[in-house]
Prior knowledge:
NAD-cap_RNA_hydrolase_NudC; EC 3.6.1.22; NudC-like_C
Amino acid sequence: MEIVDITAQDGLLGPLLLARSAVDRSAALRGDAAWLEKAWADPATRVVVVDDGNALARRSGEEFSLVFSAPADAPAGERYLLGVDAGGVAYFAVSAPLPEPALGASHGRIVSPVAASAVPDGQVVAAGLRQVGSLLGDLDAGLLVYAVALEAWHSTHEFCPRCGSRTEVRSGGHVRVCPRDGGQHFPRVDPAVIMLVHDEQDRCLLARGPQWPEGRMSVLAGFVEPGESLEHAVAREVAEEVGVSVTGARYLGSQPWPFPRSLMMGFFARATSTELVLDQEEIVEARWFGRAELLAALESGEVRLPSGLSIARRLIETWYGEPLSGDW
């Protein structure tokens, strides 16, 4: 299977950093027990350990790279096949506690986004996608997104929802089977729409949720409901959260957001009304910004935008026309 480059979505300014990938997911091999056993016995196979969304990463210059081990050196835990690269190397994730030596180092665990220069070159740290996702290469970013998403799903689906029996991992970590009733349970994602709303004056609408401190603003977003199209979800969410009517929803790109299992689908939508009526449980502040006004608010520190890891940042910068500063 050819690996498709999807890092530059049509119409978006800049890449979607969690949509990168450089391996064939090799779905046809997941049910081949003999191949899985052979791949696990191969010392060339690479294994990344993932623990509650974190993995070990090493700073190398201005980037980070995942720390892999051979299968023989990997800890015991559930195994998930992540795929095979163009050179035939197989990649697995193992859900297990991270090795202790790295956690005892001075930069043992990173809990907020970091610049490469903040960590000594060669230092190994425990970190998640929010902390180092933008600093990983295409191969490692794709592998970690995949591993984190699978680990999150498995951690909440250990038992059969029908009979309560403990389920068993099959198909390289892509199915859980109930030994009592034979039911198969597959990893799921939660589809969500995220939209930059602009009006006839080409102002964009940014908002702040009640869980965010003052100044932290982003575009609107929400989950798609059962039986609902993406376009209807865009219009419904905007109307519910800020009381604005929109039309002309235009799809721009998507990326996984495995916190724990969302798939974010990005849109532009044109407002046909501009009066703001906020749902205070969801939105405590919303404002229309022209480009000059947004730039001034960012430069003064009055407003801070989502990180470059998010599709929200890409939507805002695409509307603005060039990269912006002022991360959360």
